[in-house]
């Protein structure tokens, strides 16, 4: 097995991997991954994407990439073709990227969310590098959604998303995730500037599909106070939505606001002819998992989120 730096190769070399990876995302997660592949191609050919590529018998076997953000490294992808023995290639690529990131000056944190295709990544191997959290990819067939039809009470109202709410939404993220397991996985949730970076990636950039404001909502008190709940939705394929964020401010949790926001988004998608909705959730967040299961979601894949902190 030969390992190459991604900045030493042209994207055409990786084309068989890109095509197989896009098929896997489509077949297993109902997600059109081609726009993401287009971005990866662009950054590889501009020599601006860190990462590694594995070559076996002169054939591309797998690749992984990472990006740097301030003092943090983000491992954004890891894929190995099913034509090869996947486990050793996955392990070698991950080890190479981890070593490269650890050698980066002033880097104090590494985050990774590793979606497996064809083989599960060995937790005992991953735990050598990361503190691990199990994440679930859940899917709902919208026609089977179990909707309560309830509305908000106590002077609360639901209103459509508007970009003018970006600042107050970033503040809401910081408040909602204080001490939450997801803020351990993604440190953007810990501060308002981090929340704003997250929102801009979701709302203004194609960070997780194409943002769908028509199915994104805020819950706020009728007296005009800042929002206390939020749901953001994207479209990831024709007729397929993806919930990219749902959160409720402490003190307002446990009153049905999260469920009402979910139902509002589901109803909006149904009116627009969507067939399914997906989301990801941390398994330790049992309340959220139960909410989604009560709505009719089912887990179709589990994957690992990892964090290394100096």
Task: Describe the structure in your own words.
- The chain has 310 residues and is of the alpha+beta class.
- It folds into two domains: 2-129, Aminopeptidase (3-Layer(aba) Sandwich), CATH 3.40.630; 140-303, Gcn5-related N-acetyltransferase (GNAT) (Aminopeptidase, 3-Layer(aba) Sandwich).
- The protein has helices at 15-29, 34-45, 86-102, 123-126, 166-176, 181-185, 192-204, 257-271, 286-295, and strands spanning 2-5, 50-56, 59-69, 72-80, 109-114, 131-141, 156-160, 210-211, 217-221, 229-237, 240-248, 276-282, 298-309.
- Strands 1, 2, 3, 4, 5, 6, 7, 8, 9, 10, 11, 12 and 13 form a 13-stranded mixed β-sheet that branches.
- A hairpin with a 7-residue loop joins strand 9 and strand 10.
- Helix 5 (166-176) crosses helix 7.
- The longest helix is centred in the N-terminal third of the chain and has 17 residues, at 86-102.
- The radius of gyration is 20 Å and the shape is globular.
- The model has no long low-confidence stretch (mean pLDDT 94).
């Amino acid at each position: 097995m030969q390992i190459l730096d991604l900045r030493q190769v042209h994207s055409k070399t990786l084309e068989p991997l890109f095509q197989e990876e896009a098929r896997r995302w489509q077949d297993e997660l109902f997600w059109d991954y081609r726009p993401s592949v287009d971005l990866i191609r662009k950054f590889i050919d501009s020599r601006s994407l860190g990462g590694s590529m594995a070559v076996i018998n002169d054939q591309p076997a797998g690749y992984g990439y990472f990006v740097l953000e301030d003092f943090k490294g983000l491992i954004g992808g890891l894929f190995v073709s099913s034509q090869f023995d996947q486990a050793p290639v996955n392990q070698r690529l991950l080890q190479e990227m981890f070593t490269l990131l650890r050698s980066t000056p002033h880097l104090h944190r590494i985050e990774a969310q590793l979606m497996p295709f064809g083989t599960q990544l060995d937790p005992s191997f991953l735990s050598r590098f990361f503190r691990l959290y199990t994440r679930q990819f859940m899917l709902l067939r919208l026609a089977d959604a179990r909707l309560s039809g309830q509305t908000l009470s106590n002077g609360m109202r639901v209103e459509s998303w508007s970009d003018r709410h970006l600042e107050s939404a970033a503040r809401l993220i910081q408040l909602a995730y204080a001490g939450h397991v997801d803020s351990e996985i993604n440190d953007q949730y810990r501060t308002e500037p981090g929340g704003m970076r997250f929102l801009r990636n979701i709302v203004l950039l194609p960070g997780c599909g194409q943002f769908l404001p028509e199915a994104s909502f805020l819950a706020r008190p009728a007296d005009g106070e800042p929002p206390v709940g939020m749901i953001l939705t994207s479209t990831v394929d024709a007729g397929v939505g993806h919930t990219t964020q749902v959160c409720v401010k402490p003190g307002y949790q446990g009153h049905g606001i999260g469920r009402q926001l979910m139902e509002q988004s589901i109803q909006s998608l149904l009116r627009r002819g969507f067939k399914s909705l997906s989301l990801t959730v941390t398994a330790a967040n049992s309340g959220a998992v139960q909410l989604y299961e009560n709505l009719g979601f089912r887990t179709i894949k589990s994957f690992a989120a990892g964090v290394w902190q100096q």
